[in-house]
């Protein structure tokens, strides 16, 4: 039986197989530890008919039910910690509590571990802005960090 592996940039890895009866199944392993069990449509190989989201413990339990020994939890922790940094672009909205305020007041790096690495404004790019850099509505903020840190930074810049 052939298992096809496909790297999914910034997401993780997808493993797929086709059963003897012709059904296509897949597992998407996210770098966060989440797993998505995917059952594809029999007539359209690109259409996911059903997706079941599993956390790490649930994925291990399903693997055990299917006859696979439980995965080492330390390895899962290693993958979480060793995750490569993610870079995203966030926009400072008109209603952001930090529009018109210095970047340092947001405390993004201190509060999330993610870093603001650049800000684009009106065709200009500000690389490694200082804490005194004042955000303006419409600024495109480039943030780098873990997926959790990026998510927390987005919340801070949008809601405070």
TrEMBL record:
GO biological process, any: potassium ion transport
SUPFAM superfamilies hit by this protein: TrkA C-terminal domain-like
Alphabetized Pfam families for the sequence: KhtT_N (PF25991), TrkA_C (PF02080)
GO molecular function: monoatomic cation transmembrane transporter activity
RCK C-terminal domain: residues covered: 73-159
Domain of life: Bacteria
PANTHER family: K(+)_H(+) ANTIPORTER SUBUNIT KHTT
Entry protein name: Potassium transporter TrkA
Source taxonomy: Bacteria, Bacillati, Actinomycetota, Actinomycetes, Streptosporangiales
């Amino acid at each position: 039986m052939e298992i096809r592996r496909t790297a999914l940039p910034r997401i993780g890895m997808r493993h797929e197989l086709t059963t003897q009866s012709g059904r296509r199944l897949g597992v998407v392993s996210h770098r966060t530890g989440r797993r998505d069990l995917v059952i594809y449509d029999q007539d359209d190989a690109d259409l996911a008919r059903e997706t079941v989201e599993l956390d790490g413990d649930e994925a291990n339990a399903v693997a055990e039910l299917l006859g696979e020994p439980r995965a080492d939890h330390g390895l899962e922790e290693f993958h979480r910690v060793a995750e490569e940094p993610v870079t995203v672009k966030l926009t400072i909205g008109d209603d952001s509590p930090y529009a018109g305020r210095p970047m340092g007041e947001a405390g993004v790096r201190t509060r999330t571990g993610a870093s603001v690495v650049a800000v684009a404004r009106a065709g200009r790019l500000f690389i490694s802005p200082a804490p005194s850099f004042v955000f303006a509505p419409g600024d495109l903020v480039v943030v780098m960090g873990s997926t959790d840190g990026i998510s927390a930074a987005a919340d801070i810049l949008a809601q405070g």
